[in-house]
Q: What sequence folds into this?
DNA sequence: CCATATTGTGAATAGTGATTCACAATTCCC
DNA sequence: GGGAATTGTGAATCACTATTCACAATATGG
């Protein structure tokens, strides 16, 4: 059956989405032109009408992830003004995103694993640093307000923050969805907060 | 130049080591028979004299990692009797291992990424659960001693513990060794400890 | 020292996935 | 309605890697 024609802009979006799902399901190595074509309902060669190649598709996925990540921070900034509630809210959102869009963590981990230092990865690196920096800023704000102990290096707190998400997201996936990531946020947050604030 | 002959037992060890280094350098996808052969100083086909195939080599790597991981826990147990110092010591050792044997984290992440549910992975899963369980046990002991707050779910604490290592190890690698993982342990531990103990 | 098992080598095979290309169908615009 | 541009198709090519195999060199034990 021949696929009906669609504009390149539409196909590009479909392809990027399909690629993201594929990565979410099987990691970076699970991403193949054949797989993408199947999901979109095309023949492999048709993909090349809309992207120059696999690399270009990956770039598109990266861009997607980056925008979602930063949008996340933005909306948390808008929601709550105080540092600690902000962090907590960001934690919830970050975790939820990892769970519903596994492609994220896969790409990050794949990035980590990749030996080749293509420019493609540097953009992701950028995204990650930017995100970490956002967390650092929130921590610094909390220290200025007196809500967070001043003797904690903000970067340390930020890395620990990431550490609240990463293993939980991995366990969630490894357990096939059994691990309750929301509950982990619930019970881990007080411990983290106490570490940030108590005397 | 022809390689000098060596016993299979020796070659097996060399091959497993080479495989571990390769994975450490380029992730699971960086592991190839050609790469192994180069490192050991053999021709690719010679590898098959000592291992049935790539899968078998991987199994050997897994076994290596497992034994090192568990040995780690054992020696920490022997070193210090109290829960909190034990955790701290384990944290240091765990981090050091991640830094000097990147293969470990790569395999874990690759495991996470893999779609296929081969038996091979279940053994790794086993190792990871066992490790997590060890941490849980230490935490429980601390709660029994009164050193750790009883209202913290031990599993939560254990997952957070892993979270102290994972992101730091990744940053270390992503930064090309610039990130000071030991310093991170140094500054993150007090925060974590305070979260576990303070009133 | 020699028969034999063990180990190493190079070439050949096979499967996978990305990419290209000439051609066919579809849509758009006049 | 009829080009012309756009999009989809199937086959072919290419590169890469695991794996096998017949043969060569080397070690080993009697």
A:
């Amino acid at each position: 059956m021949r696929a009906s024609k669609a504009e390149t802009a539409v196909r590009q979006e479909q392809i990027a989405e399909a690629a993201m799902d594929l990565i979410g399901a099987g990691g970076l190595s699970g991403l193949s032109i054949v797989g993408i074509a199947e999901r979109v309902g095309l023949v492999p060669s048709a993909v090349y009408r809309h992207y120059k190649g696999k690399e270009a598709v990956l770039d598109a996925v990266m861009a997607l992830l980056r925008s979602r990540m930063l949008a996340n921070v933005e909306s948390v900034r808008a929601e709550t003004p105080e540092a600690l509630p902000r962090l907590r809210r960001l934690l919830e959102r970050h975790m939820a995103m990892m769970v519903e869009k596994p492609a994220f963590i896969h790409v990050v981990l794949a990035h980590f694993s990749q030996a080749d230092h293509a420019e493609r990865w540097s953009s992701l690196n950028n995204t990650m640093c930017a995100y970490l920096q956002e967390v650092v800023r929130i921590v610094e704000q909390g220290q200025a307000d007196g809500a967070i102990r001043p003797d904690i290096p903000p970067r340390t707190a930020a890395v620990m923050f990431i550490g609240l998400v990463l293993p939980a997201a991995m366990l969630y996936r490894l357990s096939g969805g059994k691990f309750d990531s929301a509950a982990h946020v619930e019970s881990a947050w007080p411990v983290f907060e106490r570490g940030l604030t108590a005397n």
DSSP finds nine helices and no strands in chain B. Chain B touches chain A through 45 residues (CB under 8 Å). The mean pLDDT of chain B is 92. Residues 2, 4-5, 32-34, 44-45, 48, 53-54 of chain B lie near DNA strand D (CB under 10 Å from a C1').
